[in-house]
Amino acid sequence: MMAVSCLRRRSDADPEAFRKAVADVRACRSSHAEVRRCRAYWKNVDTVVIEVEAESCYLTAPPTIDVARLVYNLVSLGEPTGTFRW
Q: 3-class DSSP state for residue 40?
């Protein structure tokens, strides 16, 4: 199963903090055994697409606390513009 999330940096958010938050989420998700691949694609300096390919049970279950904290930090810096699963 694959989940794709698009985020745009908020105008009042620090660009470096946004980039670090994306890198932290990517690294954390990649460290989980159920995740086959986690990648970040930058559309431009303010917009990122995060792609997670993992076991379906991982993507449909509530996130672990470490992932939830990092995602919360990321969403406080960027606005979700779309989320897709297939």
A: strand
* Cβ pair 54, 16 in contact under 8 A: no
Instruction: Quote the domain boundaries for residue 28.
Output: 2-82
Summarised one tens digit per residue, pLDDT across range 23-60 is: 999 999 999 999 999 999 999 999 999 999 999 999 99
Q: What is the CATH number of the domain that holds 72?
A: 3.30.70.100
Kindly report the pTM of this predicted structure: 0.92
pLDDT at 86 over 90: no
* Number of independent structural domains in the chain: 1
Checking DSSP bridges between strand 47-54 and strand 78-85, what pairing results, if any?
A: unpaired
From 25, 3, 23, select the one nearest 15 (Cα to Cα): 23
Q: Is the pLDDT of residue 18 over 90?
A: yes
